[in-house]
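Input.
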Amino acid sequence: MATVKRFEDLKVWQKSKGLCQKIFKVSIEGDFAKDYKLRDQINGSSGSTMDTIAEGFGRGGRKEFIYFN
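Output.
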């Protein structure tokens, strides 16, 4: 099994990024786009998932990485 050196190489981070992009595309269309507060909250939370994975990866040990994911 190969060692992952960057969080961008993690499948879970890649899938999270793809989902975040899809959510953004949906949120800028139709009535959803007019509800600014909801739209911003949804976009922020989907981006937060990627941030949490990256933060967990940057931690020192496996226990902390598991805690963040």
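The CA atoms of residues 20 and 46 lie 5 Å apart.
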